[in-house]
Structure prediction request, 126 residues.
Amino acid sequence: MAISLDGIALPDDLQWSNEFDWSPVSQSAEYSIGGALMVQEGTKLVGRPILITGGNWAWVTRSTVKALFATLIANKVMTLITDDGRTFPVMWNHEDKPIETEPVKFQSPPDDDDDHFITLRLFEVT
Prediction:
């Protein structure tokens, strides 16, 4: 099954590299003046970071990069479909560089079929 973001088809060999680097629980622990440990925990409702990367093994075309850049709109909620069929409502992480890309091989002038390395920074929303 192919990966897609907002209906844009992406290579199925892109990797969700931080899939298990997140905890759905937020925790705060501190000691009281009397020395007791006070722990507060809560479930995070949204905000799971999603880093999709192709490293140096999965490339996208320049036309795909242009289509992805066209989705860089404030407050835009998109649908990410992973290669195993899971669906996530996501937004771009604009606090970081949302799309990082560079051509595999520089050509001038560039062509829409030129291959690019790509990293996508998103987070899950509801």
The mean pLDDT is 92. The first strand starts at residue 3 and ends at 5.
